[in-house]
Design brief:
By secondary structure, the chain is mainly alpha-helical. It has 3 helices and 2 strands, in the order ααββα. The chain has one domain: Orthogonal Bundle (Helix Hairpins), CATH 1.10.287.3240. The radius of gyration is 36 Å and the shape is rod-shaped.
């Protein structure tokens, strides 16, 4: 049964008006949430773009330094030295809430850089290579955090937009149609009751005169 076909009573009219108010409030809140999420996502997209730019710049520096190190020390020797470099530090993924969306925060274990090789065995080109890739690793952690957050926010924006559209295009018009239908029926009934009462009063007066 369509909503606008519900029994036209004052109780259903009040119920429909309350439902309409609730739906309008829900739409308003969803729209505000969508705006906040979009603003947050766009800010993160800018951050991701800047991080990607820094990563590209560091890769350029790292590969140039690595190329020079290979030329001056030999690729086999450089590969042997690379095996002695410490592994990446442990990291923990935490979460924070942005308008109800759980976005990740990557916490990387902070520790001083140390190597198993002596600096007398290398040159500045190799040292620049190592430091550049360490910086790249940090940036990649940050980029992974930001890009994952952007994805989650985008999914929530899509879901929020879908809910808002359902209210705006379906529920709210349906409640308004229902209210209009019940209101018109009740007004017509009131008019009929008024004219019926008027006729009854007229007949009563006529009988009294007789």
């Amino acid at each position: 049964m369509a909503v606008y076909k519900m029994t036209p009573t004052k109780a259903n009219l009040i119920k429909s008006k309350n439902s309409l108010r609730f739906a309008l409030k829900g739409f308003e809140l969803l729209d505000k949430k969508r705006v906040v999420l979009i603003r947050e996502m766009m800010a993160l997209i800018d951050v991701a773009s800047e991080l990607q730019k820094k990563i590209d710049e560091n890769f350029t520096t790292a590969y140039e330094a690595l190329k020079l190190a290979n030329i001056t020390k030999g690729s086999e020797y450089i590969e042997e030295l690379a095996q002695s470099i410490e592994k990446e530090p442990d990291y923990t993924v935490l979460y924070k809430s942005v308008m109800g969306v759980e976005v990740p925060i990557i916490k990387v274990e902070e520790r001083e850089f140390s190597t198993e090789y002596g600096f007398f065995r290398t040159n500045s080109a190799f040292d620049r290579t190592v430091l550049s890739f360490i910086e790249i690793r940090k940036l990649i952690y940050q980029l992974a955090e930001v890009e994952n957050s952007v994805y989650k926010l985008a999914m929530e924006i899509k879901k929020t937009q879908k809910r808002a559209n359902a209210l705006d295009k379906i529920q709210i018009p349906r409640y308004r149609t229902t209210i209009k239908y019940i209101d018109e029926v009740l007004q017509e009934k009131e008019r009929e009751d008024f004219f019926r009462l008027k006729r009854v009063k007229g007949k009563t007066k006529s009988k009294k005169r007789a």
